């Protein structure tokens, strides 16, 4: 399959467009009145960041990346001449038994042998968190993430007063670069 055009567009958004936007916002200095109204921010970037606008921008990028995985798997399956499923099977990477069997049977490809399979599964867990929960952690996310990565994030969440308080979980966004590169490699290995 080689390059996945959706992942390449996402990479361009993350590496080029986001960088240009950050630079432009940093160069837009607020007037004294603007600083007063926005809580003392020097520029629009600081204002954007303080309102978590940068995090929500990156959340949308993660959602797009997960969608690219889903669409890419569907397209790869279709290229084998098989009739694509429409029941969401291509996004079921947390419980992937049916998807794995489908690819083995129709594509003669074992997804579990792809060196980036675990990363693809992790992207889909984060996609669900951001697309369906706007980044608010729940027990399902915690369990799914631990099942796939072995990582238990509960101690960090408890320190943020979870489950008593609703907690936004932005930590995966710090590795967005790694996820994009892993998905590039995932689709190259999917040949």
CA radius of gyration: 19 Å
Report low-confidence residues grouped into runs of 5 or more.
Answer: none
Main sheet characteristics:
none
* Strand coverage percent: under 5%
The percent range for helix content is 55-70%
Structural class: mainly alpha
**Number of extended strands:** 0
User: How many helices does DSSP assign?
Assistant: 9
The averaged pLDDT comes out at 95
Shape annotation: globular
Task: For this entry, give a set of tags.
single chain; mainly alpha; 9 helices
Write the layout of secondary structure elements.
Elements lengths: L4 H22 L5 H6 L6 H7 L2 H27 L17 H11 L9 H17 L5 H11 L4 H5 L17 H14 L2
Helix pairs in contact: 1-3, 1-4, 1-9, 4-6, 4-9, 6-7, 6-9
Question: Can you give a write-up of this model?
Answer:
- α6 runs antiparallel to α7.
- The protein has helices spanning 5-26, 32-37, 44-50, 53-79, 97-107, 117-133, 139-149, 154-158, 176-189.
- The model has no long low-confidence stretch (mean pLDDT 95).
- With 191 residues, it is an all-alpha fold.
Task: Report a brief summary of the structure.
By secondary structure, the chain is mostly helical. It is built from 9 helices and no strands. The mean pLDDT is 95.
